[in-house]
Write a structure and sequence with these properties.
Length: 246
C-alpha cells in the first residue's frame, strides 16, 4: 500500500481537529453572551420595579391626620364701662355727634351679674344730625339665641330730644364702673338679698336723671325692674349711694 492511500485519512483528521478547535473556541463566547443578557435582564427588571414604586408613591395620596375641631371659646364677661367703650367706637361711624343715653346689661345663664359683669351689653345712642337713635350691642355670649360675639348694630329709630327716656349724657360723667356700683349696692341691702337667695341675678342700667342732673347706675336685684327684690341707685360719677328705688 502506497503513501497516497493514507493521505485522505490524515486530511480528515486535520479537518476534524480544526472543527473541534473552532467549536471549542465558540463555547466561551456563547457563555459570555448569555451572562451579559442575564445581567441586562436583571438591570431592566430592577429599573421597572423602581418605576412601579415611584408610580405607586405618586398616585397614592398620603393619609391626612384626623381633623380636630377647635374648642369653642368660653363666654366672655365685661363690666359696663368696658363694654361701653367697645361699642362707642363703632357708634361714631354712625354719626360724629352721637351721645349715649342708656347702658344696660342683659341677664343670661352664663353670668349672674354678681361681679358687676355681663356677657351681653346694649348701649343706645342718639344723634341730632341724623335725627335718630341707634343701639349697639357687645356680646361675649355662646348661647344659641344670643347676638353674635363682638360688636353689632341694632335698628335705627326716630330721635325725640324732648323725650325724658332718651336724655343723652357726656361720657366724661361715666367714671364709676358697674362692678364698683355693685360693691356699693351690696352695702345697702344687696348683700342681704343674695344671702337669702344666692341665685338672684343682678342687672345694670345706667342713664341720666334729668331731675337731679346726675348719671345713675341702677343696680337691680332680679330679672327686671318690675320684679326686682331691690334696686339701688348709685352715682356713676362719684360712686356714692343715692337711694333705694322702689
Amino acid at each position: 500500500m502506497s503513501m497516497r492511500d493514507f493521505a485522505p485519512q490524515r486530511r480528515n483528521r486535520i479537518v476534524s481537529a480544526r472543527t473541534i478547535a473552532i467549536g471549542d473556541s465558540k463555547q466561551p463566547k456563547l457563555g459570555r453572551i448569555c451572562c451579559r443578557q442575564h445581567r441586562a435582564y436583571r438591570a431592566a427588571l430592577a429599573a421597572m420595579l423602581v418605576m412601579v414604586a415611584l408610580l405607586v408613591g405618586c398616585t397614592s395620596s398620603p393619609q391626612k391626620p384626623p381633623e380636630t375641631k377647635p374648642e369653642p371659646k368660653a363666654p366672655e364677661s365685661l363690666t359696663g364701662r368696658a363694654a361701653f367703650y367697645k361699642v362707642y367706637i363703632a357708634a361714631r361711624s354712625y354719626a360724629a355727634d352721637v351721645k349715649p343715653f342708656r347702658i344696660e346689661s342683659t341677664p343670661t345663664s352664663e353670668d349672674n351679674g354678681h361681679d358687676g359683669k355681663a356677657t351681653i351689653w346694649r348701649v343706645s345712642f342718639a344723634s341730632a344730625m341724623q335725627r335718630g337713635v341707634k343701639p349697639y350691642i357687645w356680646s361675649g355670649s355662646n348661647l344659641p339665641d344670643a347676638p353674635s360675639r363682638g360688636v353689632s348694630p341694632g335698628n335705627e329709630d326716630v330721635y325725640n330730644p324732648s323725650n325724658a327716656s332718651t336724655q343723652v349724657f357726656d361720657p366724661a360723667f361715666l367714671k364709676i364702673d358697674s362692678d364698683q356700683a355693685f360693691a356699693e349696692a351690696q352695702k345697702h341691702g344687696g348683700d342681704k338679698v343674695l344671702e337669702k337667695d344666692p341665685e338672684t341675678p343682678v342687672i345694670y342700667i345706667c342713664d341720666w336723671n334729668h331731675n337731679t342732673n346726675q348719671l345713675i347706675w341702677h343696680v337691680i336685684y332680679g330679672n327686671s325692674r318690675d320684679v326686682a327684690k331691690l334696686t339701688a341707685a348709685i352715682n356713676a360719677s362719684t360712686g356714692e349711694f343715692v337711694r333705694a328705688e322702689k
